Queue: 3 jobs
Job 1
Amino acid sequence: MERRHLVLADAGADPAVGPWLGALTDSRRRTLDALRDLPAEAVDAPPASGSNTIGTLLYHLAAIEADWLFEDILGPEAGVAWPAELFPFDVREESGRLTPVPGVSIEGHLERLHAARDLLETYLRPMSANEFERPRTRDRYDVSPAWAVHHLLQHEAEHRAQISAACEHFEHARP
């Protein structure tokens, strides 16, 4: 068996930021592992609970990652435009439910996830420890990039569990 090297690091980042980037990478690897060998028809298949499809959850993961980056980490003062071309749909309907995102291939969803992560890493990697820990004042709260990354890790883990359950349901429901 191949020996595994289990560390959280990113050599291109400040030592205070690198482990967080490493954790983001590990979390995404786990999400991608959950999607391995997913049949195309499973992306939009309704899960047993009647909740969100895998495709809708993947869109949501990418959109929330970008939202925390552009609204909270960078904020409007950075003058960086929201990547509207990546996110043609609102994240939620008026009812509060996630907006269904049917008809996008798994490859399309994975490309969006990758693009959102590239943006996040582009802005986090050069941050100093002080900048990473410095709270940003927003309308309803103060938030540091470190806390935002912590939240994104939790968010992805929670939705990864839903995605895994939907994958399992799809496998068991197939004739």
Job 2
Amino acid sequence: MPLLEITNLGICFGGLHALAGFNFVLDSGELVALIGPNGAGKTTAFNLVAGIYAPDAGRIVLDGRSLAGLDPAAINHAGLARTFQNIRLFQNLTVLDNVIVALNNSAEHGLLTTLLRGPRFHRESRKSHARGMELLATLRLDQYASRLAGGLPYGDQRRLEIARALATSPRILLLDEPAAGMNPREKVELMELIRFIRDRFKVGIWLIEHDMNLVMKISQRITVLDHGEMLAVGSPDEIQANPKVIEAYLGAPA
């Protein structure tokens, strides 16, 4: 059984099918991409899986557990984390505190312990600080730990958003256009980072991206959407040679 299995997923907005008959599987250690023109339904698929939208049809199963009816927080606790097209950091918190906020989602102490600042609270605070610094060091952000997140360069803000997602210990990581706004050097570093995260954290990575050079270099498998429907599934070589994909999205080679 795949770690993540999506079957016949669909949703309508105002009578229009934003996504219909969508099928997808992802296992631990896989790195796969979802591509297609703007408005094809890519982010809608992510929003359905992450619990932001409720599907009109289909099933989403993570490690044998249906995600139907779960809210985003419960889905995150079940093992799925995501980033967004537009960076969503706490700009006025430090880099370290952005990660600690995510770590505290799994804290064992309750509200009363937090208010009383008991021994468990302090023990878990020290643990969160150490774990946060470890994550920042792993993603080469530890030198910025005390800086405000809003003051980081754009590429490092993207990296911090990924670090915060990883702080929730996901088994599946969804990356929504992580290369958006990056320069060529930053995109090369991002490719290396995505591969590193897959290997270091043993997560399955599902990627939406418009930069085809990045997609073709790092993806093991690619799904193509067009107008809310699946157009093709295959390896990068198969997708690049698919006439339907070329016509709808990639364009004829120069």
Job 3
Amino acid sequence: MPDELSDILDSAIYKEIASQALYEAAQKKTQDPATRALLKELAKEELGHSQRLKKLKEKGFPQHDWHRKQVPDLKISEHLTGPDTIEGAGIQDTLIFAMKKEQQAVDFYSKMMGLMRDEKAKQLCESLVHEELRHKLRLEILYDDLFYGED
């Protein structure tokens, strides 16, 4: 496996594990059952992501058709301010925090894609950008439903 590809996989795995740990710790700091359930779901997703990336690192990089559909960006989180931490946060602040975290991941992998020389490493970055955008979209739709939806 080329060094760039291995490096980006290591970085992505680390980021997923760190996010999982953050969401698990935050579960213990909230009294709100809905927020706790959301944090549990987010931690489980991050665990799944890190496991898939570890498997990819172990088994190698499959040949894929890397052309993907465009993921809509509702840009909800870009217009919201939220906390720098989710300790003790309610559902709204937790969603804002998670949306912004997904956007940070999109930005990180987008920048990394521009720095990579290895084509498979670039493709992996592109795939990670796409996945993070899908996560952000799901969170934005949930936020929209909860806080802007019709009564």
